[in-house]
Amino acid sequence: MNDRDQIARFASYLLAGGLLLLVIRNGLVGALFAGLLVYSLVHMSAPALERKISSARARLVAVAIIGSLVVTLLSLSIWGTILFFRSDAGSLHVLLQKMADIIDASRIHFPEWMRSHLPDDAEALRVMLGNWLRDHALEARTLGEQAGRMAAHLLIGMIIGALVALHDAVPHANLLPLTKALRERAVHLGEAFRRIVFAQVRIAAINAVLTGIYLAVILPLAGIKLPLIKSMIAITFAAGMLPVVGNLISNTVLVIVALSHSLHIAVISLLYLVIIHKLEYFLNARIIGTQIEAKAWELLIAMLIMEATFGLVGVVAAPVLYAYLKRELAARRWI
């Protein structure tokens, strides 16, 4: 590699790092991930058609159709998810209110040393949640008041991802050094995203299925029916997209709701979840560990640092960015 190529590669690292920083600072992580998701799905689907199509123009048409289909399906999925969490079956407001009432009604079942760490009543829990939201006011506004803006960002990101995939369907030769180096950075980021996100989707789906079997099959067979089963399964899957931290969120919700029946069921539910997560450690080691060679404690450290620096958006971005960093270091044979 000559000096010109080395300077171009160094400049590409600076540009890539600066762009990622701007994306995080300006709340565009959702758009970036939406674009990467569409790009990855198109690239995973297109090769099967491209092998059967010899014409370059036909390949472009095939990729365009696949890209349009992926964007449409993802848009419908996002819209359906929003409708679910706005409905009575999935309302987060209803869930939080129910959890507050359960804690208030279940205080008599706890030993004295545990009661001192619980909110005094439902109103105290609402105050605690209010304080947390005030501490994360920027994130709360982004998720609440600017929901429409986020939806627009996601749609634009998906369209950009489809257009980039369409652009890649055309062969490019004689790329200049900086263009070639930036393309390499983008490819590495796409690979890191695909590995960490698709692996985490599989883990979250398995976790949600096992939790659903417990809530909708095992407990009813034992004559126990908990409220908000659909909401808890949906939250288990959604929170499962966050490594480590997601389990804590879903477990807390499930155990608190189980208290609505009895303390014994809450303890049994917690033990069942512990068993599931022990199994999940093996899945992490096999699925995520083999994909990016990262341990759970590595991801947790990355998430803590990103949360302290960028807030909740840093927690979401941390696994993918950490996987991307390791991919770049591995490409340079530094690790």
Task: Give an account of the 3D structure.
The protein is mainly α and 335 residues long. It has a domain at 177-327. It has helices spanning 3-25, 29-50, 56-86, 92-106, 112-115, 122-135, 137-143, 147-168, 177-221, 229-239, 245-258, 263-286, 288-292, 296-310, 312-331. Helix 2 crosses helix 9, helix 9 packs across helix 15 and helix 14 (296-310) crosses helix 15 (312-331). The longest helix has 45 residues, at 177-221. 29% of the residues are buried.
List the helices and strands and how they pair.
Layout: H1 3-25, H2 29-50, H3 56-86, H4 92-106, H5 112-115, H6 122-135, H7 137-143, H8 147-168, H9 177-221, H10 229-239, H11 245-258, H12 263-286, H13 288-292, H14 296-310, H15 312-331
What would a concise description of this structure say?
The chain has helices at 3-25, 29-50, 56-86, 92-106, 112-115, 122-135, 137-143, 147-168, 177-221, 229-239, 245-258, 263-286, 288-292, 296-310, 312-331. By secondary structure, the chain is mostly helical. The protein has a domain at 177-327.
